[in-house]
Design a protein that fits this description.
It is an enzyme of class 1 (oxidoreductase). The chain is of the alpha/beta class and 801 residues long.
Length: 801
């Protein structure tokens, strides 16, 4: 019965979602790419079935269609997809629009915090096992090189996977034997160690891996000397015959000033294969398709730059739907992208929410919603996760409500879905807040309050990182605003926006039907203009205060909050079975004692620290009654040693008993073992992370064997040498051995006396100071590190339990 009810409930939710999407057309479903771009368009429907458990690797771009830099980067990514079209038996190229509702769970799953983000997902991968690719903003070749590095690092042994590693230690006559038995042609590419040409050629011909094997050798290999090449000859291609002989492939005849090394070798190999007919079913269709796509891309770029722009659509009245839609996307999608919100990021969020609650000129339910959200965030002073914030932002009640249906804009609608939209609505919100501050506060206006909150939000939460960096540069003079001019923030933000419009005018991100102009236009405000480029300050300010005022917003299209829902987001629509399994892996909240303890520690961390200190002091007082006496005696002893050093005494100790109390074989051995074990324990986790569990345990076993052999050497040495000190340190540390031998030669038994004997009084004092400063500074750094990390540690515990 329960199962039937669940199925009916899911069906009803799906139908509601389907009906609502039919009523309000989505403005976020656009893709920046088409099938002609050689980029596979990925969505929430096909991502799992297409990418996960694929036999090939996948290079995936996670982008947002509203992101200006993503739009600028699209042609670069198209070029990457075209250049790597011949590699598709090894790696495919795809893209997913994170702005679309159905795609956002996949983007969250891969921890996409900025747009655009490139990730490589290896063959036969499950869920979100992806690696970040460092992209070069305008250089497709740079992305391809980074892609090759990551493919090389995967170290795959599949038959269709190229052997990227150079065969530097192989004799020339043995190269052919490394090829599979089905191979009909073996090629050797000789190049510099860090060159990418050989690996590019391997990928270009990877579809023929059963008949063609390509190896590469560097200039440091044995093959380099055997082939007797000069640096001017490389990269060079050699045909390796089955009898061990070699034949250099002629590439000179294909020389063209416009061809790079990759194209030169590619054409040479194709010419040889066509001439020798050594590979079955060999064709140039991929190459022809690549050339055709590149020509089409060039034509589209020329067409885009010559596109005729229309006149800007200017509306005197603004719409509240744009502000509420921007708020919803910002709070429910942008901010939750940040995995952990704490420290400076938490302060920026708090500042932004305070400004919104004070100056947002919206309906009362929306303002109440913002106040409730601010109150809940304040209850997490040590920070919270993006997932927690999303849960808070999704709560709607009868008198506290922010619409969360489809992403739609009215005033900020573009001629195509990728134009205007969210960035336009953000600018609208920013201007509105500055004007609202002026009109709300009659006196004592803090002019940088709103602009600094805007800057903090853009810096920490705006998805387009390139745009964020540019905004930081544009607002670098924010601190210079006149504190006595309450309108300073309004004018400042207007100037910044116009400067951005001037910089982006004619850019590919510009809506051709709504070009970026100097605002306001002469049609919208005739009195504001003084010629083509100059503005009348007083008239412009009056216009801005009226244009972005609360009274100029149309409320007729906003969603009615009469039927709110305190549920969280509807079930993700059109997500396949794999995605549902992957997305719904959130940690369950456990109600045990540990969960309560971690919650208490997080909320009262300062008092918890005081409690721990009291417990430690009590234990030391209860079980270490002579601790204070020991401290006093230690201070007296240190004072006595310093006085003796200053007076030039040759010995620090007055009798042999004190010498033996301060230094012993057992004590020295303990200190040495403590330092070795301490550093080993600290470094062991890092070693395991770098090598993996299998290699880590193997290496640990090797170290154990070496240690056991060292103990055997000590036992053997003890039979011939009666000096126990030499026996202990014979094979452990040569520097320690030198110190011990030096002590015997100087006839002193302590490190301090040895230093004084060798370096004198001044050297002793200098080294003592250094030895004091070193642990003192280390302790300070440890306290700083612990202070920064302990909060995150306790917060993480709470998330896990």
């Amino acid at each position: 019965m329960t199962l039937v009810f669940t199925h009916r409930y899911l069906l009803i939710c799906f139908l509601i979602r389907l009906i609502s999407s039919a009523v309000v057309p989505s403005q976020d479903s656009v893709s920046l790419y088409t099938a002609n771009d050689k980029v596979v368009i990925l969505t929430g429907q096909n991502f799992s079935s297409t990418v996960y458990q694929s036999k090939t690797a996948w290079l995936v771009e996670f982008y947002a269609s509203w992101c200006g830099h993503c739009q600028s980067y699209a042609n670069t990514y198209r070029e990457v997809a075209i250049d790597t079209w011949g590699w598709r038996t090894v790696v495919r190229v795809g893209a997913i629009n994170c702005y679309a509702d159905e795609n956002s769970p996949i983007c969250d799953q891969h921890n996409v915090a900025a747009y655009p983000t490139l990730r490589l997902i290896g063959p036969n991968s499950f869920t979100n096992g992806s690696k970040l690719i460092h992209l070069t903003a305008t250089d497709a070749k740079g992305v391809e090189r980074e892609l090759i590095k990551e493919l090389d690092a995967l170290k795959r042994t599949d038959r269709n996977w190229p052997n990227f590693a150079p065969i530097d230690h192989v004799e020339l006559e043995n190269v052919y034997s490394y090829a599979p038995p089905t191979v009909k042609l073996v090629l050797l590419i000789v190049e510099k160690q860090d060159d990418f040409t050989g690996r590019q050629i391997m990928l270009d011909f990877s579809k023929y891996h059963e008949q063609l094997s390509i190896f590469r050798a560097s200039t440091d290999s044995k093959l380099w000397s055997q082939l007797q090449l000069n640096f001017t000859d490389i990269p060079a291609v050699f045909i390796i015959h089955s009898n061990g002989t070699t034949e250099r492939m002629n590439t000179k005849q294909n020389i063209n000033e416009n061809l790079g090394s990759r194209n030169l070798l590619n054409y040479a190999i194709r010419s040889y294969v066509h001439k020798s007919k050594c590979i079955d079913n060999f064709d140039d269709r991929d190459l022809e398709e690549i050339i055709h796509s590149k020509n089409a891309l060039k034509k589209s770029e020329v067409k885009g730059t010559n596109e005729v722009q229309g006149a800007a659509v200017e509306n005197k009245n603004l719409n509240m739907v744009d502000l509420e839609t921007a708020l919803s996307y910002m709070l429910r999608r942008e901010v939750p992208r940040i995995k952990m919100i704490y420290g400076e990021t938490y302060d920026a969020l708090l500042h932004w929410l305070i400004v919104l609650t004070k100056y947002f000129p919206g309906r009362q339910p929306v303002v109440t919603y913002l106040k409730d959200l601010l109150s809940k965030v304040k209850q997490q002073p040590n920070g919270l996760s993006g997932k927690q914030f999303r849960e808070l932002a999704d709560i709607n009640t009868s008198n506290s409500y922010l619409p969360n249906n489809q992403i739609r804009y009215i005033h900020c609608t573009g001629s195509a879905p990728q134009y205007r939209g969210y960035p336009c609505a953000l600018w609208l919100l920013f201007h509105t807040l500055t004007v609202s501050q002026v009109q709300t506060e009659s006196r004592n206006t803090h002019v940088t309050e709103v602009p600094s909150a805007i800057k903090g939000f853009i810096k920490h939460f705006f998805g387009c990182r390139h745009c964020s960096d540019n905004f930081m540069k544009e607002t670098s003079e924010l601190h210079q605003l006149d504190a006595n001019d309450k309108n300073a923030a309004v004018v400042y933000l207007w100037k910044v926006h116009n400067h951005v419009n001037e910089r982006l005018h004619g850019d590919e991100t510009e809506d051709p039907q709504n070009p970026k102009i100097q605002f306001p236009s002469s049609n919208l405000c005739p009195k504001c203009r003084m010629g083509e480029t100059n503005f009348d300050s007083a008239s412009t300010l009056d216009f801005l205060l009226q244009h972005y005022s609360k009274d100029n917003f149309d409320l007729s299209s906003v969603e009615n909050p009469s039927e709110p829902s305190n549920k969280k987001d509807q079930l993700p629509s059109r997500i396949d079975q794999y995605s549902m399994i992957e997305i719904n892996h959130d940690f369950k909240q456990k109600s045990g004692l540990f969960s309560h303890l971690t919650s208490i520690v997080q909320r009262f961390s300062f008092y918890f620290l005081i409690f721990i200190v009291i417990i430690v002091l009590y234990v030391r007082r209860r079980h270490c009654k002579n601790v204070m006496d020991g401290v006093v005696k230690f201070n007296r002893r240190v004072t006595r040693y310093i006085k003796r050093a200053m007076s030039g005494s040759t010995h620090f100790f007055t009798d042999e008993d004190e010498i033996h109390r301060r230094s012993s074989t057992a004590g020295a051995s303990y200190n040495l073992i403590n330092s070795i074990v301490g550093s080993g324990v600290i470094g062991m986790s890092y070693a395991f992370r770098q090598s993996g569990y299998v290699a880590g345990f193997v290496l640990l076993g090797i170290v154990a064997v070496l240690t056991a052999n060292a103990a055997t050497l000590r036992r053997n040495y003890r039979k011939t040498n009666q000096n126990l000190i030499y026996v202990l340190f014979y094979d452990l540390d040569y520097s320690t051995t030198i110190l011990i031998r030096s002590g015997h030669l100087a006839k002193v038994n302590t490190y301090q006396e040895l230093v004084y004997t060798v370096l004198g009084k001044s050297g002793f004092l200098w080294l003592s100071l250094v030895q004091f400063l070193y642990p003192f500074i280390c302790l300070i750094s440890y306290n700083i590190i612990i202070g920064n990390e302990i909060e995150i540690f306790f917060i993480s515990l709470r998330f896990l339990y």
